[in-house]
Design brief:
Blueprint: H1 9-47, E1 51-58, E2 61-62, E3 65-66, E4 70-78, E5 84-87, E6 97-102, E7 105-108, E8 110-115, E9 120-124, E10 149-154, E11 162-175, E12 178-187, E13 199-201, E14 207-214, E15 220-224, H2 225-238, E16 244-245, E17 248-253, E18 266-272, H3 277-281, E19 288-292, E20 295-296, H4 300-308, E21 315-322, E22 325-332, E23 334-335, E24 367-368
Antiparallel strand pairs: 1-4, 1-6, 2-3, 4-5, 4-24, 5-9, 6-7, 8-9, 10-11, 10-13, 11-12, 12-15, 13-14, 14-15, 16-23, 17-18, 18-19, 19-20, 19-21, 21-22
């Protein structure tokens, strides 16, 4: 039995147009995926020679008893032609010997300096005479936004280096209860042991961060390269990082004008600690922070981010509201007392002082065995 088939010309045209549109969309999708695949592979090939495997060995001995050595593996990368390498501080903490694997060779590395507060370390190898080391170009980490694609390159376990593609999922000032000294990048790059210290690259192949910790859900926490650049310069110039000491406890609250609008916040001085630069400058409890130099203060994190890049002795101008009137206060950045670790009475802080919070699984990175 045959059934009559009747399709009008307009319907045939519509179906044809639909098929063409679906085909074009499929081709476009495949084209975009192929382009992304090619770009990631190209960035990896261009960058891999500047990424190195870092080894660290510590020999423990109690009296005449020699214990099994502690051996760690991490990742690092060259930042200049003179052989300077960035990696994580925990990878080379209290070790006796440090070396890198590069181009099939074992090369001794010297630890130039470490900064436990940002979990950053600077290493140095002596390249062969007249042979500069390759290095990764550095981008602007402030240009990253939630949704930006990033590519991590590092050494998982004892395997060769590999790229891990992810997207920026947050820009956080704290993780797992630990308050960072400046905003960190949270990215959906799940890293394996050995990959801590690896670079995070943007779509242009520029370093925008260095993997220093793991978020509670397994995402990567990266120190922005702008912050890493400041710390590494401090280490090379002064022998150690220069973290500012201010002496303010700050907090957030809704503005009195429109407390219902949750997106608006006021950052105010909750406590001025005695014998600190803030006390000498004349801050008062209740002062509302408006600006630090030319940077507006909208969140507590803005205070940490603005102060992070200052050095001891810098004069910093604050604009505050006191009793409804705008005032300017000039503060001279001090040197943090040795007993004050970030997260206890670190200044400025986001919460009242308390015990120093542990690092959030510091260095996904370091493999101990």
């Amino acid at each position: 039995m045959k059934f009559p088939v009747s399709i009008s010309k307009p319907r045939v045209g519509w179906c044809a147009a639909f098929l063409v549109a679906v085909t074009a969309s499929t081709v476009l999708g495949e084209s975009l995926l192929e382009t992304m695949d090619q770009e990631v592979a190209s960035i990896y090939e261009k960058s891999r020679d500047a990424v190195v495997k870092v080894h660290a060995l510590r020999q423990l001995q109690i009296g005449n008893l020699v214990l099994l050595p502690t051996y760690r593996i991490a990742t690092g990368f060259f930042v200049d032609k003179d052989g300077h390498i960035l990696t994580t501080a925990t990878a080379v903490d209290d070790v006796d010997t440090c070396w890198i694997d590069w181009r099939g060779r074992r090369i001794t590395a010297r630890i130039v300096g470490r900064d436990p507060q940002t979990n950053l370390a600077v290493l140095k190898i002596n390249p062969e005479s007249g042979t500069p080391t390759p290095f990764l170009p550095q981008g602007d980490s402030d240009a990253l936004r939630v949704g930006s694609m990033v590519i991590a390159i590092a050494f998982p376990y004892d395997l060769p280096s590999a790229p891990v593609v992810g997207f920026v999922s947050g820009l956080d000032i704290q993780s797992n209860g630990h308050v960072f000294p400046t905003t960190h990048i949270r990215a959906g790059c799940r890293l394996s042991p050995g990959q801590g210290g690896g670079p995070l690259l943007n779509v242009h192949g520029e370093v925008v961060g260095i993997a220093v910790a793991v978020h509670a859900d397994g995402q990567c926490c990266a120190l922005p390269i702008n912050a890493a650049r400041k710390i590494s310069k401090d280490i090379l110039e002064f022998g150690q990082a220069q973290h500012p000491w201010v002496g303010l406890g700050v907090s957030e609250r809704p503005p009195a004008v429109d407390p219902i609008e949750s997106s608006l916040r006021q950052v105010f001085v909750q406590q001025v600690y005695s014998n600190t630069p803030a006390a000498d400058a004349g801050f008062c409890n209740g002062d509302i922070l408006v600006c630090i130099t030319s940077n507006e203060v909208r969140r507590s994190a803005d205070v940490l981010n603005a102060m992070f890049y200052h050095r001891i002795g810098d004069q910093v101008e604050f604009t505050v509201l006191r009793h409804g009137l705008e005032q300017r206060i000039v503060l001279v950045v001090g040197s943090r007392p040795a007993q004050e670790a970030f997260g206890s009475v670190s200044i400025p802080q986001l919460v009242p002082p308390g015990p120093s919070a542990p690092w959030p699984v510091a260095v996904p990175a370091s493999q101990e065995r």
